[in-house]
């Protein structure tokens, strides 16, 4: 494939592909399915696929929610000056809503609770989507304080916005120094002297890896954000032509809690999101990237402290032969009094039961941190290791934590495929191409 359109006869439009879907004649494959066919030795041409569904799930710091809801009767206070939601601070405004008893709030996904250092915006948003009760503490402009309880179903306006999501690819991190470092790229202090590695990115599943020229992803493209219909609004912060990312939004009322969550790092809580994006195949040249496997997608290994590139590996080095799901064997649990897994799990997916640890798969991010922490070896998965030359010396560095959950990204891509084929999700033409300011 040369990435160029061979002739006008081989091109098609998004509208034509949607018509083919409506007629029941379209071939829709997930990125996992099409890559499996390539690994099996199949040759894939334009006639073999119409749409590829892609997805990524990971820590996406650039997230905020916009909420608007009533907390009291009109004229009971002039306006709010400070608001906490389950202890998480909100930015009040921009609309003052004077004497209306209504709050307009912006809540950052990385905001931290004032009462619980392991609770943040990501936890709050998931609990809202789960339908849990949210405590709202209000300080008024007159200095009065009051509290109310609410639920997402009572919040008429609740939109989740992305300022920087779905990077084309991200980074792998090591700490070459002697001292451990507290960082958002590890749930524990990051050990030094190349003892461990963490990484982000879903490789061949990633939406922009499959459409790096943004030929079908543009302003107005319909996507799924945390399972809810949403739209791309443009390029995200720090986006660049060689490593683009996206902004977008979706309604929180329609989201799926298992795609969301808070992730506690050694530098405080972060936020998890999931995107699923359809890539209509408009011409033969687009298959050049659609058919790329993990081993063909570069991944820079960098120094955590200064982001200095140390060597280049591929996503094949971290995903090929790795176990996507963490396995738990309760029969091996030795019921430690001080369970290191419960203490360290960044998702709170492990709790103490009557006879030992209880693993909650619906909360698990498959990061793998539990494997080395469990004294009884009740948790298992092959996270793999990477061999690379750094400073003229070959090093074997074990992966100890993943900040992308490929297992659930696969599920998100499958869900999008099913929605497309059943008519519950329709492809949209971008209203404008995404561009960057130089």
Automatic annotation (TrEMBL):
The lineage of its organism: Archaea, Methanobacteriati, Methanobacteriota, Stenosarchaea group, Methanomicrobia. Signal peptide: none annotated. SUPFAM superfamilies: 4Fe-4S ferredoxins (SSF54862). Pfam families: HcyBio. GO terms for molecular function: 4 iron, 4 sulfur cluster binding; metal ion binding. Residues 324-355 form the 4Fe-4S ferredoxin-type domain. This is Methanogenesis marker 16 metalloprotein. Keywords: 4Fe-4S, Iron, Iron-sulfur, Metal-binding.
């Amino acid at each position: 494939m040369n990435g160029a359109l061979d002739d006008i006869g081989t091109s098609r439009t998004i509208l034509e592909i949607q018509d083919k879907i409506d007629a029941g004649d379209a071939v829709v494959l997930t990125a996992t399915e099409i890559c499996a066919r390539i690994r099996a030795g199949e040759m894939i041409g334009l006639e073999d696929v119409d749409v590829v569904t892609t997805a990524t799930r990971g820590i996406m710091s650039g997230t905020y929610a916009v909420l608007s809801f009533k907390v009291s009767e009109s004229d009971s206070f002039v306006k709010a000056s400070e608001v906490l939601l389950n202890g998480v601070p909100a930015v009040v405004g921009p609309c003052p809503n004077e004497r209306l008893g209504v709050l307009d709030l912006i809540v950052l996904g990385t905001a931290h609770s004032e009462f619980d250092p392991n609770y943040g915006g990501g936890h709050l948003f998931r609990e809202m989507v789960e339908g849990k009760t949210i405590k709202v503490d209000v300080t008024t402009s007159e200095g009065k304080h009051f509290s109310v309880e609410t639920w997402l179903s009572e919040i008429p306006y609740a939109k989740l916005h992305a300022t920087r999501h779905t990077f084309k690819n991200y980074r792998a991190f090591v700490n070459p120094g002697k001292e451990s470092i507290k960082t958002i790229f590890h749930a524990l202090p990051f050990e030094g002297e190349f003892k461990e590695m963490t990484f982000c990115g879903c490789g061949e599943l990633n939406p922009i890896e499959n459409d790096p020229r943004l030929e079908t992803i543009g302003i107005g493209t319909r996507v799924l954000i945390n399972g809810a219909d949403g739209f791309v609004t443009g390029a995200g912060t720090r986006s660049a032509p060689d490593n683009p990312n996206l902004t977008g939004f979706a309604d929180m009322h329609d989201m799926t809690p298992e795609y969301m969550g808070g992730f506690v790092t050694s530098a405080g809580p972060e936020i998890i999101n999931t995107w699923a994006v359809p890539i209509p195949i408009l011409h033969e040249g687009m298959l050049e990237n659609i058919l790329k496997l993990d081993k063909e997608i570069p991944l820079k290994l960098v120094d955590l402290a200064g982001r200095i590139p140390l060597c280049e590996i591929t996503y094949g080095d971290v995903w090929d032969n790795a176990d996507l799901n963490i396995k738990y064997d309760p029969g091996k649990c030795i019921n430690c009094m001080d369970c290191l897994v419960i203490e360290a799990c960044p998702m709170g997916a492990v709790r103490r039961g009557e006879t030992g640890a209880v693993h909650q798969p619906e909360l698990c991010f498959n990061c793998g941190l539990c494997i080395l922490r469990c004294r009884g070896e009740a948790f298992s998965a092959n996270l793999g290791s990477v061999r690379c030359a750094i400073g003229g010396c070959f090093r074997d560095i074990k992966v100890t934590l993943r900040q992308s959950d490929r297992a659930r990204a696969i599920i998100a891509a499958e869900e999008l495929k099913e929605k497309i084929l059943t008519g519950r999700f329709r492809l949209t033409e971008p209203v404008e191409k995404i561009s960057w300011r130089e």
